[in-house]
Amino acid sequence: MEYVVVSFPTARKVRIDGQDAGFTNDTLMVEKGHHIFDLGLPPDYQPASVQRIVQSTTSIGPRIINDFQPSGGDV
Amino acid sequence: MRNRPRCLAAVLALAATACATYPINPRLSEYDPKAGYRYENLKAPGNSESLFVILTFSGGGTRAAALSYGVLEKLRNTKIQWEGQERRLLDEVDVISSVSGGSFTAAYYGLFREELFDPEKFEKVFLYRNIQGELIASLFNPFNWVRLASPDFGRIEVAAELYDREIFREKTFRDLIDQARRPYIMLNATDLTMGARFTFVQDQFDLICSDLGGVHVSRAVAASSNFPIAFTPLIVNNYAGSCHYRVPVWMDEAEKDLLVNPPRFNRARIARSYLNSEQRKYVHLLDGGVADNIGLRGQLLAIRSNDLSWSLANKINLKEIKKLVVIVVDARTDPKTEIDQKPNGPGLTSIVEIISTIPLGNYSFDTVQQLLDTFDSWQKDEASYAACKGILQDQCPAGKMPTRPPNMAEAFAVYVGFDQIKDPKERQEFLNLPTTFALPKEEVDKLRKIGPKILDESESYRNLCTELKCQVK
């Protein structure tokens, strides 16, 4: 398995390829390959989604996705 | 005048031939990812998601059906404690994935539940019955000869009709949808053209724009146990392009994975092949054992991938599953052969039988290894994180790990196969059982008893039982 952390100031669901797949700031198990990550509804964050290749990660060295920010200012 | 009866018979025969066709699977008018036979639509009264139990039943005719039946009896008789509740281990089973002979037990339990254990029901209509003899008798019935002359009515249809009438009471997947209860029954066949697993669930039927609800369960079992050459392929019509199907995101992403994750790329390639209904107007199905004789590959995928609608990797990430149990019931045999006693090779029939069974058995070892490796890697990843955290705290007590530990489920892989029988004589006896739909009563009785015995002797099952405080009735 590969590991990914999607960072965000608050706890939100993380969607991988359109399906609920965990929570922000948790270390998530992800299958190796190309994936699209987003935070689902409400769409109060930017960017709407990011695409990443996930490979060569470990549980102590996960892929960090820190692109997502709340839209419209600080949380 | 004398020719009139002959003419009448000829006309009737022609009519029977002309009318004989396979039951056509219905079209899906509109794709709806929330409807149909899917894991997400099954409720689970008295079944927690946090203890997730998967059973896989292999092929092997009545031998496989009886072995898996014995395992279900054992789980029915085992009381456990989970989250402060007492229940039967059987009631915690979430998914049963099956192939060939194992599909008879899985489908019957899915449809009729506790009736499975009624001696007047499954045991009588299938387990202790000479179904093979009845199949042969049906194939030799002159009425069926006429029907079999039709290009749209193969030998597998005779088998499907027999199973429908005599075992599965003409039930359809609509009955399973209406029950809306776990376990999720996954009956696996093989797509002849792609050599790939074809599972009778709505996710699969979405690709061909067909409503699985209108398909008789007996057809899925017939396809799953459709031994090559003995029977003709079972046909499913492909209506892809007519139901506004939306390709899931993973399929587009996986197309970029040829050099990153080739098996994922291949899964998308196979799934896309159904979308071309001009090229693939019909799907031809063979025994599920051709693609995976232990019914475990699809479950492995659910454990390791985020792509499936009921992905277990996602459920673990979402903290829904605490313990994951996979019990593989494998009726693989190792029959003695005299082929290598003589210089001349076996005949065509033997060769066909060998190439359609022996390589599959070897492939099954690899499949089980993949399950063990997956669970082992989880443990190692968890241990690595804990070790790093320990070192950090030793060297820098105020330091914090930059990320949280991965959320893991405690995993138990249990294998039930004849190779585990300790007594060599008894082991050889089981390893030499034939693959047939007619076994003597004494052999079925022995098969029912050996599954529970192997479970009791399995270290992994004993560890699970210690944690669940198992009590056997």
Structure description:
The complex is a heterodimer of chains A (75) and B (473). Chain A is mostly beta strands. Chain A has strands at 2-6, 13-16, 19-23, 27-30, 33-38, 45-46, 50-54, 63-65, 69-70. A 4-stranded antiparallel β-sheet of chain A has the order 3-2-5-7, with no helix packed on it. Chain B has 473 residues and is of the alpha/beta class. Chain B contains 19 helices and 11 strands. Chain B has helices at residues 4-19, 61-76, 101-112, 122-127, 131-139, 142-148, 155-166, 173-179, 202-207, 217-224, 249-254, 262-275, 297-304, 312-317, 348-355, 358-395, 424-431, 441-457, 459-468, and strands at 51-57, 78-82, 85-88, 93-99, 184-191, 196-199, 234-237, 282-287, 323-330, 410-417, 471-472. In chain B, the strands form 2 sheets. In chain B, strands 1, 4, 5, 6, 7, 8, 9 and 10 form an 8-stranded mixed β-sheet that branches. A 3-stranded antiparallel β-sheet of chain B has the order 3-2-11. The mean pLDDT of chain B is 93. Classes of the chains: A mainly beta (75), B alpha/beta (473). Chain A binds chain B through residues 1, 3, 5, 14, 16-23, 25-36, 51, 53, 55, 58-60, 62, 64, and chain B through 248-250, 253-254, 256-257, 260-261, 264, 304-307, 309, 311, 313-314, 316-318, 374, 377-378, 381-382, 384-385, 388, 401, 403-407.
